[in-house]
Amino acid sequence: MDVLVKQADLLLVRHGTTPWNREKRYLGHTDIPLDRGGRDELAPLARELAGKAFHGVYCSDLARCRETLTIISPAHADTAMYDPRLREMDFGAWEGHTYEQLQHESLYRQWIDSPQQVTPPGGESWADFAGRVDGFVGSLLKDVEGACSRPAETQNDGVVAHSESKGIGNGGSALPRSKGIKIGRSALSGSQRIEIGEAALSGPKGNVIARATLSGSKGTDDSEAALSRSEGPEGTGPKSQVSPEMLIVAHGGVLRQLAVSLVPGLSFWDVHVQPGSLLRIRLSFSEETGDWNGKLVNEA
Length: 300
Fold this sequence. Notes:
The chain is an alpha/beta fold. The protein is built from nine helices and ten strands. The strands form two sheets. Strands 3-2-8-1-9-10-7 form a seven-stranded mixed β-sheet. It has a three-stranded antiparallel β-sheet with strand order 4-5-6, with no helix packed on it. Residues 152-240 have low confidence and may be disordered.
């Protein structure tokens, strides 16, 4: 008798480095490609993902993510679902600027202190950003449910399942009139600082919450391994079952918001994904609650 799989793995990949990332400029909806170093840094991940058949592939429609997907999983570049809901937060008038250029602006200082309450001029509010990412999550979970409802013997048949969820596809769904905050390579200081490179994440009082440097896809440092919501690569799913895998290529802030939506108790400030690196979230379905809940998995 066929056994239904009730567990799935999401492989979340942040796009490779762009010139603005290196210059620590705010990069949201501005559509620029990877630089040469950004393309080169994806080689280890491309080798690791070579030959994988995913049950769904989702990608931001911006050039830096499309290019990343083409490098790390070229076989899926033509069939991936390119969704504008996976775009980074939009900084509006602050796009392309650095902290040093903006630090003396009053509204910018307010935004640094309270990004969830203050919106960049002509930019996207935190609520709108979170809303569109959560909308994508709702569509994604429908696809996960569909993949897990297939008999176990067909889970690794080498065929990528195409999304049937509304709003996901090459056309995607129209972006709401929304703008927002990119948290990732852009340097924030003041009360909520992210130190670029080492990924020291600080909360409102400046205390370090977590240090989660993900290099390529080869595990994490000791601090991330200590996160109580993380587990080893084997997980606790059904014995001898092969979990469906979904690949998502997006931006730093988007991957954080996805993790917040899928992993109970996780804060936006708990996780940082370096450009060109991968984070795995293992989803398990609870028959008791009827919900999907995720756990961070230490290894890809």
